[in-house]
Amino acid sequence: MHQPKDRLDIINEVLEECIQAYPLSSFIISLYKQYLQRGSLSKKQLQGLYGKASKIEHLPPGKLATIEAIIKRMPTRYKSGLPEPKPLFEKEEIIGKTITEILAKFPKHKGALFLKAKYENNEPLSQSDMADLKRFHQLLK
């Protein structure tokens, strides 16, 4: 995204002024190299450049105002928060009540104990498990 040669390149001029004012600044040198390679800087990089350039006394205020206007025109990107973790399997209370009803009547029922263990470990019950549970419940009544 290189700009045409006939336009004024304020960012390049400010970068060159900053290099003259701070010749040993690795930050300014890296910004200058990146600007030459890509032809643009990010909003945060421009804000850093503006902070350094505002400390230079002989820099015209119009160039600083131009960089400030470019910064204000750029969109601000926000990171969204992390999503709340959800359990992979949500327990259905009806299934839990049915299992406890069966175990209240028959505490050593192996099939019901197996389904209770699966239910408490948050494992989803398959269709055959659900059919067994309904059958046990029908025998209870």
Task: Tell me what the structure shows.
The chain is mainly alpha-helical. The chain folds into two domains: 10-73, no CATH class; 93-140, no CATH class. 62% of the residues lie in helices and 0% in strands. It has seven helices and no strands. Helix 3 packs antiparallel against helix 4 and helix 5 (93-105) packs across helix 7. The radius of gyration is 34 Å and the shape is rod-shaped. The mean pLDDT is 86.
Q: What's a concise summary of this model?
A:
Helix content is 62%, strand content 0%.
Return the string of H and E elements. Answer: HHHHHHH
Distance between the termini: 77 Å
Task: List unreliable stretches of 5+ residues.
Answer: none
**Alpha plus pi helix count:** 7
Number of beta strands: 0
Overall domain count: 2
Helix content: 55-70%
Which key features would you list for this structure?
141 residues, rod-shaped, 62% helix, mainly alpha, 7 helices, 2 domains
Q: How would the blueprint of this fold be written?
A:
Layout: H1 10-21, H2 26-38, H3 43-53, H4 61-73, H5 93-105, H6 110-120, H7 127-140
Helix pairs in contact: 1-2, 3-4, 5-6, 5-7
